Amino acid sequence: MSAENILGRIEISPNAIASLAGQSVLESYGVVGMANKNLRDGLAKVLPGGNYRQGIDVKLVNHEIFIDLYVVIQHGTRISEVAHGIMNRVKFTVEKALGIPVAEVNVHVQGLRVDEHA
């Protein structure tokens, strides 16, 4: 995604957008972490800190942003409420930071983490 004016050109990479989105997801209530978009053996594993972008897919189409997020959510939370919270937070954060409309934020719940101490 790029913008141009008399001073020059601004380019925003999908990786930069993914970083913004990922940080927003990890700060959301009920989220344990990001998961890889490709499940192995039907199990969702939480990606370690620096690799969370593997759980985010960003597409730029006609100056609009489409974001797919693959997450693991804490067991015992209301999945739909957590997912809606993620959608709203990511959309707000990305639009505020970039000034570009986010057309879609899709949340794919890849798994639930059960607290071992419960």
CATH architecture: 2-Layer Sandwich
Could you please say which CATH topology applies here?
Alpha-Beta Plaits
Question: How many β-strand stretches?
Answer: 6
Major sheet, described briefly? 4 strands, mixed
> How far is it from the N-terminal to the C-terminal residue, by CA?
46 Å
Counting DSSP H or I runs of 4 or more residues, the number of helices is 2
Q: What is the succession of H and E elements?
A: EEHEEEHE
Which regions contain 5 or more consecutive residues with pLDDT less than 50?
none
Into how many domains do the coordinates divide?
1
CATH H-level homologous superfamily name: Cation efflux protein, cytoplasmic domain
CATH class: Alpha Beta
The 3D shape can be described as elongated
* Mean pLDDT across every amino acid position: 88
Give the amount of beta strand, in percent: 25-35%
The level of helicity is 25-40%
Radius of gyration: 15 Å
Structural class: alpha+beta
